[in-house]
């Protein structure tokens, strides 16, 4: 994303105000003298720059190789044992564990499909013993609400809307689904649109544990409007723990071919070619860790969330959810026109609406099972909706979902 110098200066002021406790709404007052003094404060600017540089140094680990992605991302190849995960107090001094043999027999450990993500179009790859990490920049930090909140959800002040299908009232060791990939329209850079799976345990608003994986378009986080593969986790209802991708310590990546947070290369088109990715999280019974499988085809082993990151998810998930979500800021005073899925309603069907197919849960014996008692939920039927697809042996239990946001009935 490119800012003009005047907009950059405004963003910088707001960022300073939030970081140092100045009232942002002073921009709307007549006290321009105070504002101008703040702008001119070289000492405060220097302090902010230093804070950002320190935080970037914490997030961005030393690279043994750097790859320039065609989309403008910088991909750092970081030694496995130097990745952000091992800054976590519970993981310090550890090294990534190899995928258990039982998982290696079921899943690929290398990416066998070409160019799933844009950065791989460069023709470069990370050396063995390292993982690709999308570099966080100063510009990324300046878009954040504050330095410490970058990559986290806990101070997101906006309204979230969703459509979801859930399997509940059991103990689940994971879930799996194949996600149709789109690039939905985003009205405001602070809004996002995503499709994901949630594994949830605990109580919402109190001590919720959640593992979330999917694709999203989120310009506020990434600085562009590309569709990206993402992960998220929390162990305390988004209060202090967890983050997107590898911004904080926690998730341990083991695969050198996928950049979590990297842009997806192949995007579906309306009434045209459809692209999808498989997403799966499963708990390994011996170690207790939650392993991530993602990518085209059957997917590839990416890495794991150590079980000791969590409280309730140490044992099992209470529910498995699939669906879409958007943020509605109401920039114009009415409902946002940010789209969900393809931007079309589910009754338009294949090649037009977004879908998630072969939805399954994983039981305590690590068996995949179809949904038995699906429960549907949505926040605003006139803006975004969800529909169960017709029975199909190849697609299993599946849903269509999405919508275009603001319109005749969505206000």
What's the total count of β strands? 18
Whole-angstrom Rg: 21 Å
Helix and strand sequence:
HHHEEHEHEEEEHEEEEEEEEEEE
The number of helical segments is 6
Q: Which blocks of ≥5 consecutive residues have pLDDT under 50?
A: 1-11, 16-32
How does the major sheet shape up?
9 strands, antiparallel
At the third CATH level, what is the topology name of the largest domain? Jelly Rolls
> What is the average per-residue confidence, as pLDDT, rounded to a whole number?
90
Q: Level of helix content?
A: 10-25%
How many domains, as an integer?
A: 2
* CATH arch. level architecture of the largest domain: Sandwich
Identify the overall geometry.
globular
Report the span from N to C terminus.
29 Å
Show the helix and strand layout.
Elements: H1 5-20, H2 32-39, H3 42-59, E1 65-68, E2 74-79, H4 101-106, E3 130-134, H5 138-143, E4 159-167, E5 174-180, E6 193-201, E7 209-217, H6 219-222, E8 228-234, E9 252-253, E10 276-283, E11 290-295, E12 300-305, E13 319-328, E14 354-362, E15 368-370, E16 375-378, E17 385-388, E18 399-402
Antiparallel strand pairs: 1-2, 2-3, 4-13, 4-16, 5-10, 5-14, 6-7, 6-13, 7-8, 9-12, 10-11, 11-12, 14-15, 14-18, 17-18
